Amino acid sequence: MAKKDTCEIYCFDEEKVIRIQGDLQYVDISSIAQLFKAIADENRAKITFALCKEKELCVCDLANIIGITVANASHHLRTLHKQGVVKFRKEGKMAFYSLDDDHIKQIMDIALVHKKEAELNV
User: Fold this and answer.
1) Is 33 helix (H, G, I), strand (E, B) or coil?
2) CB atoms within 10 A of CB 18
3) 3-state DSSP call for residue 91?
4) pLDDT tens, residue by residue, 21-63
5) Where are the alpha helices (DSSP H) in 1-122?
6) pLDDT tens, position by position, 66-111
7) How far apart are CA 86 and CA 51, in angstroms?
8) Can you tell me whether residue 11 is helix, strand or coil?
9) What secondary structure letter does DSSP report for 53?
10) 78 near 103, Cβ under 8 Å?
11) CA–CA gap between residue 25 and residue 83 (Å, rounded)
12) Could you say which DSSP state residue 55 is in?
């Protein structure tokens, strides 16, 4: 018989609930959710991964790396830029992208380690 994955009785720790509810008031969880949502798309995750491997890539490089059109890559890069995942610079007619900061690389590295550990524990 399978174990239930919910409480069988309703009770909660009032002190913990109140403390964490108070903490939530001072954190912009919505922005964090938007960051994860931006990276959650497979193509955008591939772009982010590629930029973890190479400090800077142009739109054409990224399109070829992940196998999409330049227009499609540009669309995904605009989304990533709006969410603060990547930054860009223009050099003549070329647009080069890089990660906004090292925290994005850390998030990707942690996610990859987590995935590997999860696979080992199956």
Assistant:
1) helix
2) 10
3) strand
4) 999 999 999 999 999 999 999 999 999 999 999 999 999 999 9
5) 14-24, 29-40, 42-53, 59-66, 70-82, 102-120
6) 999 999 999 999 999 999 999 999 999 999 999 999 999 999 999 9
7) 9
8) coil
9) H
10) no
11) 22
12) S
Nearest Cα to Cα of residue 75 among 91, 87, 63, 89: 63
| Cβ 56 vs Cβ 97: under 8 Å | yes
Tell me the two tokens of residue 9.
Answer: 């009785």
Tokens of 83: 């969410």
Residues 6+ away with beta carbon under 8 Å from 81: 87, 88, 97
Distance CA 59, CA 16 (A): 47
Report the distance separating Cα 18 and Cα 14, nearest Å: 6
Give per-residue pLDDT as tens, 93-105: 999 999 999 999 9
